[in-house]
Amino acid sequence: MKTTPPQRRVMAIDPGKVRIGLAISDALGISLTPLGVVQGGEGAKERILEVVKREVPGAIVVGYPVNMDGSKGKQAAASKALAESLAKELPGVSVYLWDERLTSYEATRILEAADRTPSRDKSQIDVMSAKIILRSFLDAERAGETLKPVDLSQNGSPKT
Question: Of 13, 118, 139, 158, which is least packed with CB atoms within 10 Å of its CB?
Answer without folding.
Answer: 139
